[in-house]
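Internal tracking record. Fields below are filled automatically when a chain is submitted to the structure queue. Please do not edit lines marked as system-generated. If the sequence contains nonstandard residues, flag them in the REMARKS field before resubmitting.
Queue: standard
Priority: normal
Entity type: single polypeptide chain
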Amino acid sequence: MRHRKKTSVLKLGRTASHRLAMLRNMTTSLFEHERITTTDRKAKALRSFAENLITVAKRGDLHARRLVLRDLKNKEIVAKLFDDICPRYTERHGGYTRILKVGNRHGDNASMSIIELSEISEAAIKSKVKEKKSESK
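SYSTEM-GENERATED OUTPUT FOLLOWS
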């Protein structure tokens, strides 16, 4: 009887270095766009990785910034994390992301999900609406 099988699920069929690089890239995209679409398993793996970074960044000191820069190589995204994203979660103890299931992918029938930050800023929502309106014209 194998309790806590979570670790085998989160390996994603990749080597450790490939998995870490993928999680770093996906976390950078998540913090940049505040919402991304991916498979269910990748979203579940990304959730713990991203929430740990937000928890560290909530401290706000130099050491926390360096710890986050160890995983996120983009300095603009790290600045956005510390200046825009973390102040939204000062009163919250975890649960910074939300996973919404959206159905299956047409090509290979993989179950897809949207992972987003729990409290998306109003500016991000307005910019997405403007982009959609400009695309439809």
